Amino acid sequence: MESLPVASRPPFLPERAPGPGTDLFRKLLLLTGVRLLVGTALLIATATLTLSPGGAENFPRRVEALLYVIIGSIYLGSLVSVWFLRSRKHLSFVAHGQIAGDIIAASGLVYLTGGAESIFTILYPLAIVNAAIGLGRRGALLGALMSGVAFCLLGLGMDQSWIALPMAFGDRAQLTTPRLLLTLGANLSAFLLTAMLAAHLAEALQGARTELAQRETELKGLEALHESILQSALSGILTIDGEGAVLHINRYGAELTGFRTRDLQGEPLANRFSALSAAMAEAPRGETLLVNSAGETRVVNYAASPLAGRPGHVIVLHDLTELRRMEEAVRRADRLAAVGKLAAGLAHEIRNPLASMCGSIALLGKAKAFSEKDRRLMQIVSREGERLEALVTDFLAFARPSQPQLAVVLLSQLIDETLTMFQEDPSAQDLRIVSEPGEALWVNADSSQLRQVLWNLLSNAADAMKQTGAVRVRVRSVSGHAIIEVEDTGPGIEQEDLNRVFDPFFTTKENGTGLGLAIVHRIVEAHGGEIAVVSAPGRGTTVRVVLPASPALASA
User: Fold this and answer.
1) Contact 253/238 with Cβ under 8 angstroms?
2) From CA 420, how far away is CA 200, in angstroms rounded?
3) Which of 33, 421, 432, 511 has its CA 20 to 30 A from that of 51?
């Protein structure tokens, strides 16, 4: 794959890989480490030979001292290189100094071991290779030139006695001129070939490194783009492996489930989201329930598809909770509208004859011709007529709710007054009522209708607890909205009943009409608010009423 030209580089890719300065630093650091290893190996070999029995005969003191000087110079040069490399400055100076140091050390060993025919002439090509690694073609040529000059001067100088010979080789035979020239020519040719080959390989290696660095940079850019797309998607994206263990979840999925990747990674999907796992086993796409980390049940649409190139699946999640809630609100509004029309017509048809019946019973009750038994029966009829009249009144209140007369109301004061009145009610004598008014909150509301809402909720809580237990009323502000919560310690509500609590004529009471919460729902909606019930069997019930803030609350 060819590298992208600069002009056509996509904007999401980062800049090119580290420049030549960083690359040269790494090379010099590597060569310094190699040089220290070579110096250490030479030190061990020298110490072994000189300290062994008979070592003093094989290595005179002058030769031994020169060997240790060469080894010391290797260490000293390495330390100087490290000192410069720490600041990452003057790297070119360090590279040239290392080339010179390698050639000087090689020349010293060649001088001590026989001159032009020394076995350590192999160190010159190694110095050239090191120079090529550090400075490329230019370094290889410089290394070959310096090695050739040093070797020729050393060979000629020792052969012509321009340079004093070490004592160990003072008695060797002098090379003939043809042999000396042949030796020098062969080594110079080797130096030149080594430089050419090393330069070619160094450039090829540098090109490969540059290409690799470029590919790594482009890959990181693509990975960053992929991660950005994944995290920016407005859908939950969850990936699992072939065994069903979670691999990754994106940001929206973490917000939906309440779990991040590190919380889920490696854990089977069925452990955290059993309903989702079971639904996927039946169909690759559909709708199911998902319980998040806070214990909230969300309605989600899911679509699972196999991962490309590896076992596993990617699962896309969409939160439908609010959509289903709005759909349910629309259905409830339709039902309420239909029932309201029926209730209005029925109430008018019943009220007139009911009034006549109640009036007639009241007149008959004043007559003296009836026995005591007959009077008790008429009292029963009169009482049931009054109950029926109250039911008709509720029908009319539900069918034709009066428009709220909005005014700025101090919520804490209204709640305190309502609780004070409710505590005097016979049904609340054995209740423990706790009020948490919180901060002073103001709402736009019809005070009489809001009292009716609160009274109805308190009455329902008292009935649910059989008039014994605790009721807690909390008031708080969230995002410019006033929230009233009425919490009881009753038996709770079954899930199938919880979805119908605001339906008209639905009740679990023996003598209930099923209109109380339906009227409360109408009143809250007329105020532009929302009402919700949170309950579970054995955990009590909490009714939450959310009302819009008044300007006073907004300014506060």
Assistant:
1) yes
2) 97
3) 33
Domain extent listing, the chain = 6-219, 233-319, 324-399, 407-555
Cα–Cα dist 532/191, whole Å: 89
* Token pair for 407: 């005014």
pLDDT, tens digit, 9 for 90 and up, residues 404-443: 788 888 888 888 888 888 888 777 777 888 888 777 788 8
- Do 522 and 401 form a contact (C-beta atoms < 8 A)? yes
Q: For tokens 């250490």, what's the residue? A: 40
Express each pLDDT in 252-285 by its tens digit: 888 888 888 778 888 888 888 888 888 888 888 8
CA dist., res. 348 & res. 483, Å (int): 37
Q: How many CA atoms lie within 13 A of 118 on its CB side?
A: 22
3-state secondary structure at position 177: helix
Pick the CATH number of 324-399 from 1.10.287, 1.10.1740, 2.60.40, 2.20.28: 1.10.287
Percent over 70 (pLDDT), the chain: 81
Please count the helices (runs of H) and the strands (runs of E) in the chain.
Answer: 17, 12
DSSP conformational letter for 113 = T
Q: Distance between CA 389 and CA 382 in Å, rounded?
A: 10
Nearest to 403 by CA among 522, 483, 297: 522
pLDDT tier at 1, thresholds 50, 70, 90: very low
Cβ neighbours around 34 below 10 Å, total: 14
Three-state DSSP state, 445: strand
Model-wide pTM > 0.90: no
